[in-house]
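Q&A log
Question type: sequence-to-structure
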Amino acid sequence: MKNLFKSTAILLFAVVVFSISTYGQNDDIATPKQSILDLAYKVCPKSLDSDIPGIVESSIYNVILLKKYYPSADYSNIIDKLNEISEKNVDPGIRFKAHLASMYLNFSSLINVQPKSFPEYENEPEYIYKQITNQLESKLFVSNY
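Response status: OK
Response body:
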């Protein structure tokens, strides 16, 4: 009886250890797959054209996150769309955010945004825009004093 218990415990322990190591090696969980990225490139320009301000605003934020996690992708058509929004949108807040996102896409080598998860920080989009503003101010504006 004791040997049966030991054998079962060892077998159970081995299954748990191998399961953890197998799942622990999966890097796809941390970053979106290429198919999701491709879909985002198709959806972003369309959602930036939306008549609903909330969709446009969240799309601008999502573009910043895309650039953060996929810096080498081509964002030229999205930059053009952001520049158009920053000039023509009726909402000054959206125009400002589009301009900041365009600046981030153009100068991402100078700006390092650090996203935080929502449970830890409720106002994540505003936090990202504040980071961009502060870094642009400190790195691009020169004082003559």
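Response note: Residues 40 and 51 are 19 Å apart (CA to CA).
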